[in-house]
Amino acid sequence: MSEYKIYIKGLVQGVGFRPFIYRLAKLLNIDGEVKNNNEGVYISFNTTEQNKRIFLQKIINEKPISAYIENVEVREGECENIYDGFRIIESNTISSERTDLSPDIATCEDCLEELNSNPLRLSYPFINCTNCGPRFSIINHLPYDRKSTSMKDFELCHECNNQYKDITDRRFHAQPIACIQCGPRYKIDMSNNLYKISLNLSESEQIRYLAEQIEKGMLVALKGIGGYTFICDAFNNRTISKLKNLKKRNDKPLAVMYNNIDAVKENLYVSKKEESELLSWRRPIVLLKQKKIVSNQINDFLDRLGVILPYAPIHSLLFSKLKTKALIFTSANISNSPIIYKDEDAQLLLKDKSDIIFINNREIVNPIDDSVVRFVDDKRIIIRRARGFVPTPLYCKYNTDGILSLGAENNSYFAIGKDRRIILSQYNGNTRYPENLDFYKMNIEKFSKIYNFRPSHICCDLHPGYKTVEFAKLLAGQLNIPLLQIQHHYAHALAIMAEHEICDNILTVVFDGAGYGPDNKIWGSEFMICNSFQYMRLKHFDYIPLPGGDMAAKQPWRSAIAYANHYNVNLPYTFVNRIGSEKISIIENMQKSNINAPLSCGAGRLFDAISSLTGICDVNNYEGQAAMKLESQAEKNYTEYYDFNNNDPLNNRTLIQSIIKDINDQLPVSQISSRFHNTLIHKVVATIIDLLIKYDLPKKVILTGGCFQNSILLSNIITELNRCNIEVLISENYPLNDGGIALGQAFYGSKNR
């Protein structure tokens, strides 16, 4: 018999790893001890060589569902310590390193069953166990122990303490363990005085009251896992209209929470992959194709609806009292402001907006929105990476320690480097707005505290007008550390390269709205050869003078005029009648005179132009609205496309001429949208094949950028390239949009500092 020591790094805290190890050890009659430290999980034990092998194999093969093992180190020695039994011992801090931290985990089936059966937690909205419950949202610092979380304020009662210490119990060493006697509680906030409710109502009775008020059309601000959410009946158009007005988002789609998967399937088409994601422990919002229209007020007449299932006990308890099968479920913030997560802010900002505030006394330490995903040919595309995914890191082959990358401006995320990991933050909104910039800086401080992080290098974008770049320069100067600036679209490519562990030359296509180029022009349709040190831009769409610059992103009609005028094509008479000759003349003169008309080749503005020319969308009231509505209009299985010059496929003159002709000929908008998408697909595929041959590159290509969130574009390009035996690489774990920029910047820093 020998003494063995096993060191495990990865996502092994907050996922029930120590209880899992304890039970395995007991099963195999192994004596020893297990503990957390800030680097991971440490196991020391006595056993035979054969038993050690079985133990190790079971650890790897049977680990908790949300755990991830990055590295296992085993050491053997003489029996310096003779253990009697197996125990979990107190955590300790041994260095400045930090282990990985679990994301928040949706309520498990066992806990949901207990809501109706366990007297200790009957209808208790904070029920959790080792396998589920809050993690990232409640932690102040590692190691992950109760005293490190906002649960430290709730002393365990006798019953909970016994369960916490009982190896046979599902709550053995569950850090957020709580019950009716000792845990946090919900209450209806009385500050708005709209309803005179007896203070003697039990929590269950208050939930019943909330359900009754929702059925009557009331709007509720509910404190959840990562912040406050607005909820109301998804079938009450009056309340939905009120909600959209107060959030100042009259067009932007709202998510819907259904009570169960069967209700989802009644109204939406759900693939096996989509169903699996909806039911997963991450519980993101999933964009699904509609079968029945719930209300066009909810999703701006788009063909997809954002759907989520209950992930916190309070959601399940509410549905148990509700007659409706669906609730509007959206963050309780005003447009262009961060999610509200502090109770005092909710009481101040929401009391005049919601009919009822349902509050609890557990602090949210790390605010976090819900994640949003969609599936394209069974490939997961992350649109917003937040709860359920954050802070799971990317494991990198290179040392990233000390790198702080600050991302882009819109869809802002930051990333920190620890050892060989890149840890991407939650979504922080558009940092152009002061509230979001403050929120972003606050979250950098929180991550630094959790992971004991201090930057040694800062990476950021090239754009001189980004607030994140301004902050990067200020911080680098204050700390006297190096600053690396990485071109926007190259960072897009690097994010995919990091995920797929690619350092050598690879062809990359980046389609998005805008990115600052070193030529002082606006890029956004790049075909590049990239490696981990540099890039070479090969081709792009024609540069178009963009009247108003950033205003064109908000007003697609400007892009429509710009494209038609640049290619000397008369605008459709329907467009002229709608927009007006005077406004059109002003834009044309700006373009001709080069007054506030920067040159742009952004693919996003091309989508905007077509959407406006066809009359689908003239103004973007939310990011990507015109392009999303254009995609929704396209006919499935429609194969026609416009002719283009095979010797110059990225020139869009013929495309604009053909589309305007079809508009004047009154071809259905659905067919024009289909032809546009199909033409773009053929242009991209033809260009990729040509460049792979011309530059003798490997038969693989990266597709990235926000435009590739378009399922028609992405799916068909992948299909066509696969037919030519060309491998396509995208990201399934990080955003293709600007949310991935910080990841790419950090990867560049790991290779080039």
How is this structure best summarized?
Strand 23 (506-516) and strand 24 form a beta hairpin. This protein has 24 helices and 29 strands.
Characterize the main sheet: 11 strands, mixed
Give the low-confidence spans: none
| Secondary-structure-derived class | alpha/beta
What coarse outline follows from CA principal-axis ratios?
globular
Topology:
Elements: E1 2-11, H1 17-27, E2 31-37, E3 40-47, H2 49-61, E4 68-77, E5 86-88, H3 109-114, H4 158-165, E6 186-188, H5 203-215, E7 220-223, E8 228-233, H6 237-247, E9 256-258, H7 261-267, E10 268-269, H8 272-279, E11 285-290, H9 296-299, E12 304-308, H10 313-321, E13 326-331, H11 343-349, E14 356-360, E15 372-376, E16 379-384, E17 394-395, E18 403-405, E19 415-418, E20 421-424, H12 434-450, E21 457-460, H13 467-479, E22 483-485, H14 488-499, E23 506-516, E24 522-530, E25 535-539, E26 544-545, H15 551-554, H16 556-566, H17 573-579, H18 581-593, E27 599-600, H19 603-613, H20 625-633, H21 653-664, H22 669-694, E28 700-704, H23 711-723, E29 727-729, H24 741-752
Parallel strand pairs: 2-5, 7-14, 9-12, 11-15, 18-21, 21-22, 23-28, 28-29
Antiparallel strand pairs: 1-3, 1-4, 2-3, 6-14, 7-8, 8-13, 9-13, 10-11, 11-12, 15-16, 17-20, 18-19, 19-20, 23-24, 24-25, 26-27
Helix pairs in contact: 5-10, 14-24, 16-18, 16-19, 19-20, 21-22, 22-23
Tell me what you see in this structure.
Helix content is 34%, strand content 19%. The longest helix has 26 residues, at 669-694. The strands form 5 sheets. Strands 6, 7, 8, 9, 10, 11, 12, 13, 14, 15 and 16 form an 11-stranded mixed sheet that branches. A 6-stranded mixed sheet has the order 17-20-19-18-21-22, sandwiched between helices. A 5-stranded mixed sheet has the order 4-1-3-2-5. Helix 5 (203-215) crosses helix 10 (313-321). With 753 residues, the protein is α/β, with parallel strands linked by helices. The protein has 4 domains: 2-88, 2-Layer Sandwich (Alpha-Beta Plaits); 101-388, DHBP synthase, CATH 3.90.870; 389-502 and 736-752, Nucleotidyltransferase, domain 5; 544-729, ATPase, nucleotide binding domain (Nucleotidyltransferase, domain 5), CATH 3.30.420. The two termini are 48 Å apart.
